[in-house]
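Q: For a teaching handout, I want to show students what a protein-ligand complex looks like in token form. Below are the inputs, and the small molecule is flavin mononucleotide. Please produce the holo structure.
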Amino acid sequence: MAPPRDLREWIARLESEGELVRVAAEVDPELEITEINDRVVKQGGPALLFENVKGSDRPLLINQFGTERRMAMAFDAPSLDAVAEKLSDVLEMQPPQGLVEKVRGLQKLKSIADSRPKTVRSGPCQEIVLEGNDASLDLLPIQKCWPDDAAPFITLPAVITHDPRSGVRNVGMYRMQKLGPRATAMHWQIHKDGRADYLATDGKIEVAVALGTDPVTTYSASAPLPKHIDELMLAGFLRGEPVELVRAKTVAIDVPANAEIILEGVIAKDELTEEGPFGDHTGYYTPPEQFPVFHLTAITMRRDAIYPSIVVGKPPQEDAWLGKATERIFLPAIRMTVPEIVDYDLPIAGAFHNCCIVSIRKSFPGHAQKVMHAIWGLGMLSLTKAIVVVDEWVDVHDYDEVMFRIGANVDPQRDVLITEGPLDHLDHAPTRQFYGGKMGIDATHKLPEEGAREWPPEIEMTPEVRELVDRRWAEYGIPVDTPAGNGRISQSPRPLRRLLRR
Ligand SMILES: Cc1cc2nc3c(=O)[nH]c(=O)nc-3n(C[C@H](O)[C@H](O)[C@H](O)COP(=O)(O)O)c2cc1C
Ligand SMILES: [Mn+2]
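A: Here is the structure, written as tokens, with flavin mononucleotide included.
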């Protein structure tokens, strides 16, 4: 198989795997869907297709990405690490030796060539074309997610723009607050490529918004690629076939032919509106702030279009798994510049920007600090507020073990680095918006040059005794199923961790 070609194929796959439930009962897009979904997400439950949403003829799909299993299914991969391997294969390509390697190398090159989007003459996203007053956002079951949200918000859009200087396409996921039937706000945060395209514009910038694309394309809109790389290239590479595009009807932008719904419109450079409040992935409401206004010029869609949605809020929510996909998929790229990094973990409870745990092959004094500064210099990871560095043998995904290392190996005076730099647009904690304090905690074993006394050995049982006890376990008659702990602290299966391991 290959990743699903469009949202319908994805829904069919989810359904055949018992990963989707259709809800026939009428539900309110104002708050009720959020409450239902919140309960389902936090249980690791199925995707939900609400077929009867109050006030709209369109069904609403939510929680399509809500577990690690579904996130991997979206890529048709056994795990998110397997998706990352596909990328590292290409990134780490060496000149091939011998015929077999050459053929394999050619296949890899073909996968890169296939990633370029392809234009086609027509697509199902334009089965219905609505322009002028016929184009109305009132047709869509847009959710008001949380009680104090300013209005309904479109929450899972792939927003397409072109850099007015270079023409390079950008696709990003930015929430859109409904201002009326033909206007929304565009929540382009300060660090984002979409914002940069808009700032480089004189007058007006054309915008197209794809709703309900195949899941890999939807994911790619959320991926933090460098500005000059088209997210649709990543989508094509990960899908193993190019994204097909058709020309939009009222703007000079090519849009994914397979989408359920396309919103076309323009944004004027000097027109801003108050956006928010919005219950955000920080777990708090982001306060009202000025953002650009999107004016709808057309809606095109499939005849029986399905509207995709997502709710963010206190973690864990569905977006946790989009974030985990990025964490895994970008590891090979991070290793290209910081090869001493073994693994990293962005805890879901830390809303991704708040904390990064990283394990390194430490080989010189100050190595942990070198890696902290590297992370603070890498793409969107530069916004990370706290970094914990551990040695290569520590499992960064085991938070108990990380906490143990922090407690055991850190002299706060010597090993905590306090510095400052750019912070996430939405972070409400720093004194100033966008800029503030950062902390690095060096929880590695220290070297004499770092001012430490001789580091004591870690406790470990001998292999002989472990084997002996494994062999004799049944004899003891102790009713506990216990693999050798190797002197490690216990791995308590707390609810969040259990969810993470699903
Ligand atoms: C569900 C979801 C909602 C998001 N909402 C926003 C948003 O409203 N504004 C924003 O700037 N980024 C938002 N993001 C993050 C961006 O999509 C992400 O940073 C992406 O890399 C931006 O693309 P760009 O770097 O090409 O601008 C959201 C991500 C997800 C998964
Ligand atoms: Mn981008």
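A: Two things your students might notice: The CA atoms of residues 265 and 297 lie 5 Å apart. The chain is about 30% helix and 25% strand.
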